[in-house]
Amino acid sequence: MTAPDKNPGNRYVNDLRRIEYGQSQFFNLRSIVVPLGLSVIFLAVVGLLVGRSYSSFGNETLIVVIAAIVGGYMALNIGANDVANNMGPAVGGKVLTVLGAVFIAAICETAGALLAGGDVVSTVSKGIISPESDQISVQDFRSLMLAALFAAGLWINLATWLSAPVSTTHSIVGGVLGAGVAASGFGLVDWNTMGLIAASWVISPVFGAAVAAALLYLIKIKILNVEDRIPAAKKWVPILIAVMASAFTAYMATKGLKKIWSPSSVEIVIASLLAFGVAYFLARPHIERKIVGRQNTKKDMYGLFDVPLIIGVALLSFAHGANDVANAVGPLAAIVSTLSSGNEIASQVAIPIWVMVVGAFGIAIGLVLFGPKLISVVGEKITRLNSPRAYCVALSSAVTVLIASNLGLPVSSTHIAIGAVFGVGFLREYVENPNKRKLRPGHKLNATADDAFDAVAAHRKRRLVRRNFALSIAAAWVITVPASAFLSAFIYWLLQLV
Q: Is Transmembrane helix a UniProt keyword of this protein (predicted)?
């Protein structure tokens, strides 16, 4: 006979804990399995539809189906990783929820890809290789493009899993480089172009950080840190909104609307000036209404930047969809073009509408299923953001691209956005120093060991940017091209064995 349980309540508590643990494990598993399952369904649908459409190509149908699936996979990863750079600051600034950001970005990314995505692009050689040369056959070219696309997708997938925002352009460049070298040696590579790409690792984040820090410093000295903030806001916020409208008009004309509108430099300047004037005169009464009833505090001034910020990140997402869809579907379009052009390699290829649809919906689905993770990292993990700081990050992305384009400097939108977040954080450290230790006159050294420990603790508290994220993200940027290149070369070698 077993002895009766002296404390049956413990048994019930343990049972409840086991049930609670089992439920938590189930929900964690579901959060992984469901997105993966939906992704597999998306890729399967792509493969089936493409296979049915290209069934008349006989043995070559398989390469198109595989390329379409890999292109869809690349698009999913772009949505999971790259879109976070635009929407992360708005989420971190508490202007948008993660769900709201995902919803806006999905619509704008899809619209940008379908409405303004380039219908004619290079074969995504990006100037790295010369695919039209006699050094490479059509079959090897197809394998090269497929290996580059798959390697880039794998690398971005790994970076997303490691919570590291990376450049999709650099990923595909590394893929083309690695497969190109594997296909025809180092002579196929344009190393001058590679040098410019390497330079962008430094130029992009530094430019982005400098512009964002300068904008935030202006907002601080003109609005947030003055004694009478309300009249200062009435004067300066409409000007800042007009500057944003002008910058984004030029940005959309040069980056986001290339397929719809190709203006001259003079037309861009005129349009930007008109946008400045219209935005200023619309913003003045808007700010006058919004500022009624607000207190003369910094926190009450933050809300004045909410609407411009939402518009700004939406435009960034539209332009991103218009530009980066080529990274997802360019190699796919290049492979398809070799079939429709009689097994010839062209330096310029037209992107069929179905290829654009795969890229557009792949980016949107990847964003919805996997994007919230990187959005939280960019918006909340690096440094603390609010509405004005996030506004500076968004405006910095547009301004930096415009400056760099006029100077002929290579930049990455991913690196610019992340650099801008770090620039905002480091400016706060330098200007605010909320826990700054004030030494008494004549005291250059700490009197006791306790004072020394307190000084170290105070110094650490002043760090408003998480250095571990800076190091890990910088490492991912540097590794991106060689990692995707090695992956691509290995995949190309495997394809040659098949």
A: yes
